């Protein structure tokens, strides 16, 4: 996607968000995706990165289909037999935090080699620890302990340990 397309789209979409018109936001987002033959999730990811970069710190979007993911490692062979799973799932409650980290969205981990995810998880953990106060604004519902920085640190560390244990494995996300 061209930078001009994204920045123009960002301006338009942020206007809807500032007016709390989320329905209009998603209409424009999906129309743009259809016109450009792009995935709406990818566009939303680009928009969120730019929104935060330009200071729209209240940026937070959750689609209607909220999904939690289980992360496994599978054999690199054609059969992709499961080797081991993370001991916890990664809930949609962490999306707003994760899109601002080097590891990105969990769904984007699918099909990558575990060894390639290790530096991304290590830098994400370091970033969360070093700038914890900054990331608190992206927590989902800290009063109910949902989507918190503290919990995400534990989850990312769990993934990191799994990927270090099986570096040649392929990451599977369900």
Number of helices: 7
By secondary-structure content and strand pairing, the structural class works out as mainly alpha
Helical content class: 40-55%
Distance between the termini: 27 Å
Strand coverage percent: 5-15%
Helix/strand order, N-terminal first = HHHEEHHHHE
Task: Please outline the helices and strands.
Elements (H helix, E strand, L loop, with lengths): L2 H16 L3 H15 L3 H14 L17 E4 L7 E4 L9 H4 L15 H17 L1 H4 L13 H17 L4 E4 L1
Antiparallel strand pairs: 1-2, 1-3
Key terms for this structure?
7% strand; 174 residues; mainly alpha; 3 strands; 7 helices; three-stranded antiparallel beta sheet
Summarize the structure.
The chain is mainly alpha-helical and 174 residues long. It is 50% helix and 7% strand. It contains 7 helices and 3 strands; from the N terminus they run H-H-H-E-E-H-H-H-H-E.
């Amino acid at each position: 996607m061209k930078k001009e397309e994204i920045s123009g789209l960002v301006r338009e979409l942020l206007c809807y968000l500032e007016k709390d018109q989320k329905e209009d936001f998603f209409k424009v987002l999906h129309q743009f995706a259809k016109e450009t033959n792009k995935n709406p999730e990818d566009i939303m990811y680009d928009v969120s990165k730019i929104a935060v970069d330009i200071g729209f710190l209240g940026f937070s979007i959750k689609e209607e289909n909220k999904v939690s993911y289980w992360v496994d490692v599978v054999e690199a062979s054609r059969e992709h037999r499961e080797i081991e799973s993370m001991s916890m799932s990664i809930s949609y409650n962490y999306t707003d935090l994760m899109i601002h980290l080097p590891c990105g969205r969990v769904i984007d981990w699918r099909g990558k080699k575990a060894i390639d995810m290790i530096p991304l998880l290590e830098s994400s953990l370091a970033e969360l620890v070093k700038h914890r106060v900054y990331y608190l604004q992206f927590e989902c519902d800290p009063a109910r302990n949902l989507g918190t920085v503290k919990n995400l640190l534990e989850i990312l560390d769990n993934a990191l340990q799994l990927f270090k244990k099986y570096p040649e494995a392929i990451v599977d996300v369900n």
